[in-house]
Specification:
68% of the residues lie in helices and 0% in strands. It is mainly α. The chain folds into 2 domains: 225 residues, no CATH class; 166 residues, no CATH class. Helix 2 crosses helix 12.
Amino acid sequence: MVAVPFFYFLLLLVFVLVRKRYFDISAYIILLYLISSFCSILVDVYGLRIRYTQYYEITMLPTILYCTLLTLLIYPFFKLAPLKVQNISRLEPKYFNAISYFYIVVFFVVLFSSATIIVRVLSGDMSEIRLLIAQGEGEEVSIFNNVPSFLRPIVVTANVFASVSMVMLLFYFYSICFLQKSKLFNSFLFISSTTILIFAIVGVDRSKVIYWAIAYGFFILLFWKAMSKKQRKKNIKLSVGIISIILTYFLMLTFQRFDNSDTGSGGSMIYYAGQSFIHFCYFFDEHPYQGFTLQKVFPLYFKLFVDNDISSSPELNRIMSAETGIFHGIFNTFMGDIMMASNIVVTIIYCVVIALSTRIIFWGKNRIDFYYLIMIFFFSSILLFGVFVHFYAEFTRVICFLLFLIYALLHRGNKRYVYR
């Protein structure tokens, strides 16, 4: 049964490529889940499951739900027309510049406030620091320890917006393709997108590096046909350099954290990529959570109106782990993340609502412009980053999602269709 999603997504990818005759957003999303599904097979082949799933037999019902719900959410992106240079209406520079400069400032605020911690992490025992953070005892590596109290509101604000800094890759590629901006400006745009990588280092975290890499691949794909041959060559070289740096960090962190584990560093990387489907099925069949909460679906609402002293998704995971005796700080896709805290009914409703919302927002009455590209990214990011967990289970990311969505809706254009 573990191989079913792999063959399903393989056939689905072939169908999309044959039907559309090019590699589009939906194909990219399917490819991510195809890779994850293949790694799930490797997890079983090499016996890499963690203790409490070791003897669990994957059943048919969660497998069918897994494939069906993902297909439902991928469908609106399958219906999107290809991005073409002549189909994109331009935006007013003042809006573009305002957000661009804001995120450039955010990068430097986060960098300077985190500098001491970055040095400590890169020169210390990453495994030990990560363990402290995972246990909720990471106060000593908090960036706020190095910030004067009167500057903390600025740093807090910067950290909120930095949580989705990958969106600046959209600004970067839009700028190099359609605007006559200087190389220096474009370089700073690109650098501003990497703010989330600072979080990755501070938190001794691999997932945020992967989020950024997934977003980078997404925008390369989105703008590929809009690039000149010269720009494509430059971005291929840039991509090679980026992949090298990311692999170096990823391997260094993996070796430090898992080289002495039972599976070793190699097994750890396979398990990292392949655990989501297995855990989705396991929690569906074996361990539904009895303390129902919608905090993973409405984290901002809970932050503002519910006084439960739970400020983040990892903190909620630790509480659920303590109450059930089963470790919840794992990857199980965005669907499993929601299901783990509530139930499968809530998960199905969430998927249906998001699929319908995506379909309606990008329906034929709307048009292609920069603002709709923003919305395409934020809605697709539920799936893109959801291959691991629910990216928007954190209230800070929901704030950014809503602000960018409102901004895009208020400034939407009226010149080109998004849907065919």
